[in-house]
Amino acid sequence: MKRVTIKDLAEMLNISVSTVSRALKDHPDISQAVKARVKEAAATFNYIPNDFAINFRKKSSKVIGLIIPEMSMFFIPSIIKGISSVLHREGYHFFVLSSEESLSMEEENIVTCINSRVDGILISLTRYTKDLSHLQRIREMEVPAVIFDKTIPQNFFEEIIFDNKMYAEAAADKFIESGCKKILAIFGDENLEITQARKDFFLQKINAHADMECKVIYCESADNVKEKLNIILDYESFDGYFAMSDETLAGLHSSLIKKKVQTSAVKVVAITEGILPKYLDESYECIINDGFSMGTMAAMKLLHLIRSGKDFV
């Protein structure tokens, strides 16, 4: 059965489209008898208002495009939940596009959002995004956009990122306070700003102590962590292990178990959303970064830009 339109209702009842529209909205100029006829017909034929057409007339789709670097069990679900909580409350819908860590797909996703006439875009960049030239079209089309979590140095778009200095220094302090002397620090993709920021602030604290040594490795995935540690832990031992994210922590945990490292005898500290460590090892210490809060802040920032008519800094 095809979807019944407001025009179909008007033809059935032999009245104008505008009369049907006003009757459905309980307009005072329409009699109660006509309102009753229209609403009865709408219920009988399962009439559903066309939100897209309504919003199009208002020059607003009430839809947001969310672009993420990849679908992951780490962190992304809580960010999406935070974004959803804000947008749903404000009457917005959103769709999720994954770039699969591909710059070309990220470019395609941006075009999809523009062609879908979204009111705004939330985007977390891929590890291969080196500049924002492909986002220029967003600026040209005056589509508000906010970059969150994974970004690169730039001055064109609003950003929502964590306080990496606070998190990295807090993690370093835990090793210092515990008297650790040799630490293995596992960071994510070397090309990402978040990775470099956390590494720099972490090492600044550790290197201030001459009696402490820190080995740094970069890993793009949990599997990459396991591959590297499978070799490293055969010829080196550490009294402290640092993971800059839930993903690196997952790889670290698997490696420690495989190499039969007694976690009670070493210090493991991770910057994490806080959920994963509960299912790994209760002795792990956590520096909590809240994905839900990041999602809510990013959504609220975007809605502010939409309502204020600004699309970039």
UniProtKB/TrEMBL annotation:
Keywords: DNA-binding, Transcription, Transcription regulation. Gene3D superfamilies: 3.40.50.2300, lambda repressor-like DNA-binding domains (1.10.260.40). Pfam families: LacI, Peripla_BP_4. SUPFAM superfamilies: lambda repressor-like DNA-binding domains (SSF47413), Periplasmic binding protein-like I (SSF53822). The keyword GTP-binding does not apply. Residues 4-58 form the HTH lacI-type domain. GO terms for molecular function: DNA-binding transcription factor activity; transcription cis-regulatory region binding. Coiled coil: none annotated. This is LacI family DNA-binding transcriptional regulator. It comes from Chryseobacterium endophyticum.
